[in-house]
């Protein structure tokens, strides 16, 4: 199982956000692109992948929304469709365990600390080791949205391995695509 966890520093936890202004909902547009990059293939779904969004904006923060390719239904790769699924998840009362809002989409209370506690994580960061120079990769990768990790997040992530995807800083959704390509090549036996 491959998992991408994206921290949305300003992403709203209010289900009343407008589908017509996703950037104004704490850059929900960027998080929706991360879900699409994580799960969508041309004419298919990555059933071996999950995308978790940690929403850190608003009164109910932090909340984590899980998108699971294995059980996903009715996901189109466009931002508006994905944002609609996020709205449905945010409308649910949630607790400490994931609660499903629609097939493949679930929400729970908690954020980065819980993800780190669950283990098996690495950080995607421009200052990390070149991903092509390491052997086995972990199953879970943590990324930040358009903002850098906060000082508190950076401290919490210090003990985790960090990997870089190359000399250029990429958008989170682009980083997911590049890492998928790297993992796909390794899995299929393509030469690196």
Automatic annotation (TrEMBL):
<dbReference type="InterPro" id="IPR029026">
    <property type="entry name" value="tRNA_m1G_MTases_N"/>
</dbReference>
<keyword id="KW-0819">tRNA processing</keyword>
<keyword id="KW-0489">Methyltransferase</keyword>
<keyword id="KW-0808">Transferase</keyword>
<comment type="similarity">
    <text>Belongs to the methyltransferase superfamily. TrmY family.</text>
</comment>
<dbReference type="InterPro" id="IPR029028">
    <property type="entry name" value="Alpha/beta_knot_MTases"/>
</dbReference>
<feature type="binding site">
    <location>
        <position position="124"/>
    </location>
    <ligand>
        <name>S-adenosyl-L-methionine</name>
    </ligand>
</feature>
<dbReference type="GO" id="GO:0030488">
    <property type="term" value="P:tRNA methylation"/>
</dbReference>
<keyword id="KW-0949">S-adenosyl-L-methionine</keyword>
<protein>
    <recommendedName>
        <fullName>tRNA (pseudouridine(54)-N(1))-methyltransferase</fullName>
        <ecNumber>2.1.1.257</ecNumber>
    </recommendedName>
</protein>
<comment type="subunit">
    <text>Homodimer.</text>
</comment>
<dbReference type="InterPro" id="IPR007158">
    <property type="entry name" value="TrmY"/>
</dbReference>
<keyword id="KW-0963">Cytoplasm</keyword>
<dbReference type="Pfam" id="PF04013">
    <property type="entry name" value="Methyltrn_RNA_2"/>
</dbReference>
<dbReference type="GO" id="GO:0005737">
    <property type="term" value="C:cytoplasm"/>
</dbReference>
<comment type="function">
    <text>Specifically catalyzes the N1-methylation of pseudouridine at position 54 (Psi54) in tRNAs.</text>
</comment>
<dbReference type="GO" id="GO:0008757">
    <property type="term" value="F:S-adenosylmethionine-dependent methyltransferase activity"/>
</dbReference>
<dbReference type="GO" id="GO:0008175">
    <property type="term" value="F:tRNA methyltransferase activity"/>
</dbReference>
